Amino acid sequence: MAMNEAVIRDRAAEIAELVRSDLSPKAAQERLAEYHAGDIAAAAELLSAGERTKLFRTLDMDELADVFEYFEPENSAEYLKETDLGKTVLLIGKMETDAAADVLREFPKEKRNQLFELLDEELRRKLELIVSFDDDEIGSRMTTNYISISSGMTAAEATRALMDQAKENDNISTIYVSGENGVFCGAIDLKDLIIARENTSLETLISTSYPYVSAHERIEDCIERLKEYAEDSIPVLNEKKRLIGIITSQDIVEVVDDEMGDDYAKLG
CB pairs under 8 A, 24+ apart, for 84-93? Predict the structure, then answer.
């Protein structure tokens, strides 16, 4: 076993014992704050359903959402079955949209539709879009956590739009630009926007040859292109060339890992 795996295993065991102890909820929460979300996720898999419920109640919603990011989608769905509906809705609302969509796919259609009805309208629209793509289409792996601005803005206007959107979206190093008709124009590096003069037109800052993928492209058809790009994220466009999501560098790593796993499975 690799050293890192051994450390995670040991920390997970420590957390499991902490959960099983008779510490007060406040004391347990303070102790849990010392651990990484990934370690807590590993510990949750060592616990019984009742013990997991105790653990999940100890964490606040933001902390719990971070932990759920480390579960496999099927495990997340299983654990959410142990949680009341209201808390499930809150958790999904806190998760990255791509991770939340992966979890929702694990629910039966009737339960998934029930959850959709309880979500905020804008979030529901985003998640329904991602879930609508087949598993082998790249659109199924995208997130809606990105910044988008209009090409007609000045640098000052774009900065204000960035600050407003950053309250909800934290992938800000690359800013995507669309024209008045909504068609994708290109991208701007955050540092270029920061140093631009207030009245500078965005047209002078936009990288118009920025790479992209189409939402309905099969993953196996675009994976090699995605691996070649050195960008922190790649935009995903619909059939009208409008931006509907992005694939982050972390998403690309996960897609590559999944594709390699599928290839090994076929060889086996």
Answer: 85/114, 85/115, 85/118, 87/56, 88/115, 89/115, 89/118, 89/119, 90/61, 91/61, 91/64, 91/65, 92/119, 92/123, 92/127, 93/119, 93/120, 93/123
